[in-house]
Specification:
The protein has about 200 residues and is of the alpha+beta class. It folds into 2 domains: about 140 residues, DNA methylase specificity domains (Adenine-n6-DNA-methyltransferase TaqI, Chain A, domain 2, Alpha-Beta Complex), CATH 3.90.220; about 50 residues.
Length: about 200
């Protein structure tokens, strides 16, 4: 079955059509390529600000459970949650809004991030010098989803695994800072002892 039969799929906004060169009351956070972390989450520190000439249609703003796919390499997929709603989605991304009765957004997020699907995307772009893929690829993408309750099981495990990976990465960063501080303090104490 084609993904397009179970979800609406479109590209984001062509920004040049709605951009204002001066600040306006229609100001939105803008999802850009830098704000999509390779691990599949939105790094809100790297969001841009987008001033629009008018209020933007809701279809171009992130909504909870949207699956957003980068249309150029590395084709990173992110899942929109409560904290990342209301952002402008540029035409660098495909927006997938699932029919939740048929396919879970969290399951689709996992599925589109698997190595097998990534390989299929790369194979589909082999003739394209820019390595970009069209949203139509995802509309025509064949999937055989598991029953909904099984999809939710997979999605739950994936969410826990991703959370654990994130926490381990954060712990490693903090440990690095901790060890650097200990070594620096020890170095300073030794310099004093040696009269250097």
């Amino acid at each position: 079955m084609k993904l397009g039969d179970m979800a609406s799929i479109r590209s984001g906004l062509v920004l040049a059509r709605k951009i204002s060169r001066v600040p306006t009351k229609y100001r939105y956070p803008l999802l850009n390529l830098r704000s999509i972390a390779p691990e599949g989450y939105i790094d809100t520190v790297n969001l841009d600000v987008f001033d629009a000439v008018e209020q933007l249609a809701v279809e171009y703003l992130t909504q909870k459970d949207d699956v957003i796919i980068r249309l150029s390499s590395p084709y990173t997929t992110v899942l929109i949650d409560d904290e990342t709603t209301g952002m402008v989605i540029s035409s660098n991304f495909a927006i997938v809004r699932t029919d939740n009765e048929r396919v879970s957004a969290e399951y689709l997020f996992w599925l589109l991030s698997t190595p097998n699907v990534k390989r299929k995307i790369f194979e589909n772009t082999s003739s394209n010098m820019l390595g970009a893929i069209k949203p139509k690829f995802f509309a025509d993408f064949e999937i055989e989803p598991l029953p909904l309750n099984k999809q939710i099981e997979i999605a739950t495990i994936n969410k826990l695994a991703r959370r654990e990976s994130f926490l381990l990465t954060e712990l490693a960063k903090e440990k690095e800072k901790y060890h650097a501080a200990i070594i620096e303090r020890l170095h300073d104490e030794m310099r004093k002892e040696c009269g250097v």
